[in-house]
Amino acid sequence: MLPKLNLQLGNKKRINLVIKDHVIRYLDSRHPDLKAVRAFGEHYLPDGLIREGKIVEMPALVDKLQGCVDEWGIKRRDVQFLVPDSFIVVRKLQIPSDIQSDEVKGYFFMELGSSIHLPFDNPIFDTVILGEKNGKKDVLLFATPENIVKDYSDLLEQVKLHPVVADISPLAIYRLYYQLGLVQQEEHALCIQFDVQTVNISIFHDHKILFMRHLRMDVDWAGWKVEKDALGVDNLKWAGDIDYIHNELLAMIAEIERVMSFYRFSMNQGKSQITRILLNGDHPLLEWIEDQILARMDVPTSSLKDEKITTLKGEHILPQHHLTLGLSLKEVK
Question: How far is CA 192 from its chain centroid?
Fold first, then answer.
């Protein structure tokens, strides 16, 4: 059973939006099911409207999103969206065992800023109880700045959309692997999301997220060019030196290896290690990245490149939309 992160603002039938520095993607599904997708789409953004997840040019971004809303026919729909990875904190903490389950959030509310410190003020947070041992409760804390969630909520409301649920990308993409039966409960799974400028690394065990780290590559979005293929689908092409991109990607892979070592020796004292890699993302060189990982790491790797997931009309859902698809699988009471 997957943990649920419910930063809820309402509860109706929803569409799903993923907004990144470089792109807006949507997916419309009748209900949380792989076989219920009605439509999906994307629109690439010019450089500078969003930087490292923070909206910096709200009027221009509103204009771009309004065009998407009109084109996709989603005006006045309820929306679930992702909080930017760069503003997410995931921590495993211990609290006294005598704190009851319905008192955990209240405990964290009181302790934040005193015994529990976050890199930002005024957080929105959620918790998941992992279990109890040695007289302590193990609890996962998810937190994000309230002002960031408000900025994205305001953006959506300005184009007559209704933000109702905020989620985080590691849970969304892991949900897709889980539904496809590509990850097992006993595995220590390293989920790697390679996008054009960032890499998000998360670790799951027992279907629960235990670790998350967000990395940014030294790659200028302006170096990518959007070109249409023979079917009219937008594709990204790197306009600069391909060796530069390869070196940046190899640097990220080296950092991933350090995270694997940290998980094995610092978090688990050598008793547990990564047993499966879940590779995904919207990077145009994802297959090259997979080849490099397979050459360097003796760990089974599951990508989604061979998964044939289609809409109700039989249209193939492209890999860059897998994250939005995972978001659509979220079940909220």
Answer: 10
